[in-house]
Amino acid sequence: MHVIFAAGDFNFVQEAPAKINLALQVTGQRADGYHLLDTLVTFARHGDRLGFRASHRDEFSLSGRFSPLLADEADAGDNLVLKARDLLRQAARTAGFEAPPVHIHLEKNLPVASGIGGGSADAAATLGGLMRLWGIAPSSDTMMAIALKLGADVPMCLVSRPLIARGIGETIELLPHFPSFAMVLGNPLVSVSTPEVFSLLARKDNPALALSLQMPNDHAQWIEAIKGLRNDLEPPARTLCNEIATLSQLIETQGAVATRMSGSGATCFGLFDHLEQAKAAAASLHSLRPDWYFQATETIKGDA
């Protein structure tokens, strides 16, 4: 069902920040088909929000710009929020804890299937919110197992701080000195199939991410480092979705100091020197393409 999200109606509100792949390099493929990645990830202060409250029966409600796109899968019990709830409940009860019924509300502000981890962020926020509501603290191994069942991006979304992830996303190194960036997110609201993008990769054994973890908290140095990296999924995604090239070019014309696609697309980001510049750019882009998605935001800095 669709309702207006009022934070005061819930016991807890959990943020689900957008995940931004500042760089993504495909370094191999396992025998089971999973691709091996090296990715530099940060998180935006803009994202979805979830509310949690005790209930007589399990409920799930939706609001937000992109909530209509999730209505069918929610009715079918196929949403990652519901899968996260069920997996955590099973783990809690196996360990002898109560996991009573809950009403979860998802305010869906991020485009769906857009390369910025919306579903994974929602799943991670569900795990965090329910641990608080139910008063449980599963082991890190249990949480990692649950997260990986939900998707390769969920472990990093549980952290929601700047990091480098390797393997299939389970090997995480935090970047405590990573700075915050002003950013514009853009999406042409065209769906891109992640399996198709991977299938069109020219090679799957690219060099690993070459990046020093000891870099100072300096915007200019980090921007230069980011500009020297790449997203191996961007060229194949562009062949599937012509709008990605147009979007990237539009963001560049607004004065972005670096522009790239995130994840498997079609969301692209532009880094700006100041938030006011990003806000002006987002407003200008919206006037040029009011049918597309644009959002000015800042990223979350490391926890040094």
TrEMBL record:
Xref: InterPro entries: GHMP_kinase_C_dom, GHMP_kinase_C_sf, GHMP_kinase_N_dom, IspE, Ribosomal_Su5_D2-typ_SF, Ribsml_uS5_D2-typ_fold_subgr
Lineage top rank: taxon: Bacteria
Residue ranges occupied by any GHMP kinase C-terminal domain in the UniProt entry: 218-285
Keywords from the named record: ATP-binding, Isoprene biosynthesis, Kinase, Nucleotide-binding, Transferase
Enzyme Commission numbers on file: 2.7.1.148
SUPFAM superfamilies per record: GHMP Kinase, C-terminal domain, Ribosomal protein S5 domain 2-like
Pathway where it operates: Isoprenoid biosynthesis; isopentenyl diphosphate biosynthesis via DXP pathway; isopentenyl diphosphate from 1-deoxy-D-xylulose 5-phosphate: step 3/6
Residue span(s) of domain GHMP kinase N-terminal: 79-159
Family: Belongs to the GHMP kinase family. IspE subfamily.
Residues noted as binding ATP in the record, renumbered to the chain: P111, V112, A113, S114, G115, I116, G117, G118, G119, S120, A121
Lineage, top ranks: Bacteria, Pseudomonadati, Pseudomonadota, Alphaproteobacteria, Hyphomicrobiales
Broad class of enzyme this protein falls into: transferase
Cited PANTHER family: 4-DIPHOSPHOCYTIDYL-2-C-METHYL-D-ERYTHRITOL KINASE, CHLOROPLASTIC
Species name: Rhizobium calliandrae
Protein's name in the database: 4-diphosphocytidyl-2-C-methyl-D-erythritol kinase
NCBIfam families in the cross-refs: ispE, PRK14608.1
GO MF term list: 4-(cytidine 5'-diphospho)-2-C-methyl-D-erythritol kinase activity
Its biological purpose: Catalyzes the phosphorylation of the position 2 hydroxy group of 4-diphosphocytidyl-2C-methyl-D-erythritol.
Active site: K19, D153
Catalyzed reactions: 4-CDP-2-C-methyl-D-erythritol + ATP = 4-CDP-2-C-methyl-D-erythritol 2-phosphate + ADP + H(+)
